[in-house]
Specification:
This protein has about 375 residues and is an alpha/beta fold. It contains 14 helices and twelve strands. The strands form two sheets. Strands 3-2-1-4-5-6-7-8 form an eight-stranded mixed β-sheet, with helices on both faces. Strands 10-11-9-12 form a four-stranded antiparallel β-sheet, covered by helices on one side. Strand 2, helix 2 and strand 3 form a beta-alpha-beta unit. The N and C termini lie far apart (about 50 Å). The structure holds nicotinamide-adenine-dinucleotide.
Length: about 375
């Protein structure tokens, strides 16, 4: 019998999940709820879903699996609403929310009386884009997809869910909802607060120091990229992970005080240790691995800011498969920029390094 998958919320995450499910299971019937007409129409036109509705109850009783892909607080409201609707026996309900404890608690509160299975989910990939227009079948490739079991999870729940989501090519990890919220408060929620604080600080500072506007590049840009994220989503995240985030903020405040005192005291050794420790920890963590992919092989080339330099380099490397290219610009035109070229394997990297060293005068170094 054909399975019916119900995607509730046809935004970036819901529509991308639908595309991934369809890729591995073209025979499934995928139906979607979306409050606004725009994403619903796009999802129908692009064949992301077979049928659409603006009333969550419409397909609820027909679904074998329900994915709640709306903002966290709305996910909680829908869990309550699902408890009042007729549902199929044994239906699996899951969600995509960026925080997990509040959602798992709500599911246990509202759905315990129902004959269904619930497991929390957090596909850890996204972008600052929203809506069905931004749907991308590759969004979750190699990304971690966290599953947080609840009292309503059975042993078969996880395997059935993974099977339905096999087309995503994500990396599934099971963990406790509370631990998920602690870890993400450190590596995701708190950094978003920092990025927006930096932008807000620079915004005020530029009023008296207009060059702030022009010199903000390089490191500042890298550190504040995520300040472009959706304010509604981030408000929801902060309000459903309050205690962990406040604890991280307080701990960070103490760290800032320590480095402030070291600067005031002119303590060069302590300041050096501060930077060195950060550098060492960054090297140890998986930060250099894109989406946790095991190994990447990077070549860095110091290139002058001249016309055609990049084309010349790429021409020399013709025939070698390149995974990614990035230009680490400086904000002064008269000094070198760094061209970072990423290769799939060590052999390609070594071949490329040899070519650039022998056929150009550019300085080359390897990560
Ligand atoms: P989105 O803005 O692209 O889509 C949100 C969807 O929710 C839309 O379909 C919108 O119509 C619907 N919606 C919003 N408010 C609603 C309301 N009050 N009632 C009914 N429907 C409503 O956002 P998204 O990025 O797809 O986020 C969806 C969920 O996925 C959120 O819970 C978010 O925390 C989580 N998530 C997002 C990302 C990311 O980077 N974007 C990553 C992982 C998880």
């Amino acid at each position: 019998m054909t399975k019916t998958i119900y995607i509730v919320g046809l935004g970036l995450i819901g529509s991308s999940l639908a595309l991934g499910i369809r890729k591995a299971h073209p025979e499934y019937r995928i139906v979607g709820y979306n409050r606004g007409e725009q994403s619903r129409t796009i999802a129908l036109k692009r064949g992301i879903v077979d049928e659409g509705t603006d009333d969550i109850s419409h397909f609820a009783a027909e679904a074998d699996m329900i994915f709640l892909c709306v903002p966290i607080q709305q996910t909680i409201r829908f869990l309550e609403e699902l408890s009042t609707l007729p549902l199929k026996e044994g239906v699996i309900v899951t969600d995509a929310g960026s925080t997990k404890e509040a959602i798992v608690e709500a599911a246990e509160t509202y759905l315990s009386a129902k004959n269904l299975q619930f497991i929390g989910g957090h596909p850890m990939a996204g972008s600052h884009k929203t809506g069905a227009n931004a749907a991308d079948v590759h969004l979750f490739e190699n990304a971690y997809y966290i599953l947080t079991p609840s009292r309503l999870t059975q042993t078969s729940t996880v395997s059935r869910l993974k099977e339905v989501l096999s087309g995503l090519q994500a990396r599934f990890v099971e963990m406790d909802a509370a631990e998920h919220d602690r870890v993400t408060s450190q590596i995701s929620h708190f950094p978003h607060i920092l990025a927006s604080s930096l932008m807000n600080q620079a915004g005020t500072y530029r009023q008296d120091h207009p060059f702030t506007q022009h010199f903000a590049a390089g490191g500042f840009r890298d550190m504040t990229r995520i300040a472009e994220s959706d304010p509604g989503m981030w408000t929801s995240i902060l309000l459903t992970n309050q205690s962990n985030i406040i604890e991280r903020l307080e701990e960070f405040g103490k760290r800032l005080k320590v480095i402030q005192h070291q600067i005031e005291a002119g303590d060069a050794d302590a300041i050096w240790q501060f930077f060195n420790q950060g550098r060492e920890i960054r090297k140890e963590m998986e930060i250099h691995k894109r989406a946790g992919i095991d190994s990447f092989y990077d070549l860095f080339i110091n290139i002058p800011d001249q016309e055609d330099t990049i084309l010349t380099v790429l021409e020399l490397l013709r025939g070698i498969s390149v995974v990614n290219i990035r230009i680490n610009e400086e904000n002064r035109a008269d000094i070198h920029g760094v061209l970072q070229i990423t290769f799939k394997n060590k052999e390609d990297l070594e071949r490329a390094e040899g070519i650039i060293r022998t056929q150009t005068s550019y300085q080359v170094f390897v990560d």
